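Today's session is about reading a structure prediction critically. Students often jump straight to the picture, but the first step is always the sequence itself: look for stretches that repeat, for charged clusters, for runs of hydrophobic residues. Only then move on to the predicted structure, which in these notes is written as discrete structure tokens rather than atom positions. Here is the chain we will use throughout the hour.
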Amino acid sequence: MSLSLPRTAARLSIGMTFATTASRPSSVEGTKKEEKPLYATAPSHRSYIFLHASEPPASFPARVSTPIQRALQLKVMKWGGAVNFSWFGPPKTTGQAVTAFSTLGGRLEIPDLTLENLDEVEGMLQKHALEGPLAKGSSDEIYVYVCTHGARDCRCGETGGAVYSALQDEVARLVKADPFGVASRIRIGETGHVGGHQFSALK
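Below is the predicted structure for this chain, in token form.
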């Protein structure tokens, strides 16, 4: 007698892990079970777009948005994009910088997003998401984002902050030991709410 075990497929994309459990036939019911996402998993998107925030997520209100974020989200959601806020320290420019990742690979950096160039930027983001990297060598660095949006979920504020600090410390240790190793290409950042927190293991 052979057993048919569920197969789990997972992919790492834009600093978030997504997973789905494939359905399996039931010998009792004779029907296939519906595919269900693994709980504590952030929703999957073709592209994840980060607006560089002017302050860390720990200081965000429970729900945060801006006119330009809402306008961009309305456009990109039509082809599977999602917009969030990220923090890697104080912004280096006065404009609204954007970093976007695609499931096809690559990272797209946009120095200044405005309501005036919104359509042009959205076109670049869509092409990056649906056709792949717009520039060679844009995937050399490894970006890891940790939700530290404590006002939205206290677990992200407490455990998320601890995870963020631990990752920073570990990367620093590895870089000190091997300045030119893989760890030298890792960037640890903070992000706003990403979803899936109701069943999060960070409790």
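Discussion point for the tutorial: The chain has a mean pLDDT of 79.
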